Amino acid sequence: MKTLYALLPLVLVAACGRAPEAPSTVTVADAWCRAAPVGAMAGGCYVTLTASADDRLVAVETTAADHAEIHTMDVTGEVMRMRQLKDGLALPAGDAVSLAPGGEHLMIIRPKQTLAAGETLPLTLRFQKAPPRSLAAPIRTPDAAMAHGGDHR
Ligand SMILES: [Cu+2]
After folding, report:
1. Lowest mean pLDDT, pick from 108-112, 113-117, 128-132, 139-143
2. Which residue segments constitute the domains of the chain, with CATH numbers given?
3. Cα angle at 96 between 95 and 101, to 5 degrees?
4. Distance 153 CA to ligand 1 centre (A)
5. Alpha-carbon gap, residue 73 to 76, rounded angstroms
6. How far is the CA of 151 from the centre of ligand 1 (A)?
């Protein structure tokens, strides 16, 4: 009898594991948000995303701000401007897509919390195919080497 009970969980796992198709997933790595002074109207968060199948980052949500957007940087002459990616960001299968200072980023609009180094900011990333991913991104002051990448003012 003991043996039967011990085997039961294994049988259930085997049965549930036979899904018709493996859903696509997105691996989320190196998430962080840039520390900002008290009263800052916006902040930037960065992350590296790797999709198992062609996918798209379509939205970002946070309970810690009025809302959040997916942005990119355009350089016009010597002026760097931010632009919202209304259709989101393509995630080709197997490619590590890095959102980093100076390029694509997640824009946190009107934060409700101070973006203080050492704290975390909750983010939910929504994809076209893969299930949404929620994470707590650590807030930190960028390294000197990354500091000239782009400011959010
Ligand atoms: Cu931005």
Report:
1. 139-143
2. 22-132 (2.60.40.1890)
3. 135
4. 9
5. 10
6. 9
